[in-house]
Amino acid sequence: MIGELLAGRYELQDVAGSGGMSSVYRARDTVLERTVAIKILHEHYSDDPEYVERFRREARALAQLNHPNIVTVIDRGEFEGRQFIVFEHVEGENLKELVDREAQLPVDQALALVHQVARGLAFAHEHGVVHRDVKPHNVLIDTDGVAKVTDFGIARSLEPADGLTETGTLLGTSEYIAPEQASGRRVDERSDQYSLATVLYELLTGAPPFTGDNFMAVAMKHVQEPVPSVREARPDVSPRLDAIVSRAMAKRPEDRFPTTEAMMAALEAARTDTDGALVPAPVTTPDEGVTESRPDPGPLPPSIQRSRKRFPLPILIGLILVGVAALVIARGGTDSLTGNGGGGGGGGDRVRLVALSDFDPSGDDTEHPEAVRAATDGSATTYWTTESYSSFDKSGVGIVLDAESGATLSELTVTTDAPGYTAVIEASNRSDGGFKVVSASQTVEEQTTFDLEGGDYRYYLIWITSLDGHAHVNEVRARS
Question: Is 133 annotated in the active site?
Answer without folding.
Answer: yes
